[in-house]
Design a protein that fits this description.
Elements lengths: L3 H28 L12 H37 L14 H6 L7 H14 L1
Helix pairs in contact: 1-2
Amino acid sequence: MTDPDLRLRMNAVLERVLHSLDEEHRLATQNARPVTLDQTSVGRLSRMDAMQQQAMAQASLQRLALQRRRVEAALNRVRHGSYGRCCECDKEVGVERLLSDPAAPFCMDCQEERDAQRAAAR
């Protein structure tokens, strides 16, 4: 990415996303606490619902951790001057793609190729 103003704006966007992810992580951590299994205080269906909520919160924590790693990697690329370049082929990622996903590490061609390989492996 050659436009320094855009790079600064995207850095600010990534910092805000990181802050938001940290807040979501804090909330999900509260929801992922162990479920009380005391049958005298909570009915069976309520416990099952609480266990399902806990499992969803744990899955959310995993998703948030992945998103956080992507954003941190993008911020690292900003610091090292490689932000906006595809991590695979080193071509420009494209401003539109970065505006829709500021942490995008790959250009559309490389991302589509990766998606196709992943789909073929299933």
